[in-house]
Amino acid sequence: MSFLIPSRQIAFSVELASTLGLEEAILLQCLSDQRVIAESEVSGRYQWHTLKSEQLTALLPFWKASDIQRAAENLRQQGVVLMSSAPLSESGEIRYAFNEDSLSTRHVTAQPANKGSASHAGAMAPSWQPDDNALRLLAQQGVPNHFSHDQIAEFVHYWSERAEARHSWGNRFVSHVLRKWRDFEARQSQARKPETPTWEQTRENEPESMNREWRPSTDCLEILEIQAGIHRNFIEDAIPEFILYWSEKGDQCNTWNARFINHVKRQWAEFQHTLKNESRPTVMTSDWQPSDDVYDVLRIARIDLDFARDLVPEFVMYWRDRNELRPSWNTLFLQFAKRQWQQRNLSENSLRDRSIVEDLSDRSWAT
Hints:
Largest sheet: 4 strands, antiparallel
Strand order of the largest sheet: 1-2-4-3
């Protein structure tokens, strides 16, 4: 056989390598492959396996014993495997067991890549949340916990739309957040401005109350507009209601931008869902009522639902008189209700003067 064509290959998960580390993923796959031939015994709830130092160095000739011990210790610290032996240099062996509780939540099957997975593949659930292991892995990679939480709505919305079945939503979420965080850090390093704080510097600022002059930062707008693909006018329309709600609550916070990102993403996800349910143009009918999805969006925007319901007769009468075809009456009503709520609660200087005709006709952020 040619020297350039290896007689034995080690296949490992790229996803695991990105979350656990390259060395750790290689060692984990090796330990998984060898458990069928290694010395084994059952103790407590675990199946323990033993590999001698000679076996490990033969399996992993490109590593020293210290390299194997380091990778094994990292796997133990991350809760993936349990170790009951002394360090490899002292005991001459590794006695290990797979932490089935951890592996099941990670959906790590510890099977060779060409044998498939025994775990059940499922579609993304609307109520899905990452488990503690996924958040802990992200924290170990230096990702702030609030940044991870801010990515959940977008991640769930994206994969719910695709309706694909996956074995490991937790690992996929970790990869998704790491990619977002590294993009954020790259932009910060390339275009650092003295007056623009980093995410971590923002967290170190003293908590402040919300005020009527507050505006989201440039980085915040970039995350929403460029990364999340949210229309700029939609973002701008969400600012007054956000300011109003938190001004009335009187809370102090040093992460208003993070809260605003989460607020807008939740609204956008609901809004996109509403748009998908309406596509064929229709005329306004006398018995028309907003859908439940519309009230869900208004609830997320913290707009009083009784106030919104009181607007329906006026809205219906206006569009009945015009007798126009529109593809989404829910979208038009949603915008109208938000405008009316803002005008009711904010001072006249906070919003430009608009007539009811302008409010009802403006659909700029919905296109």
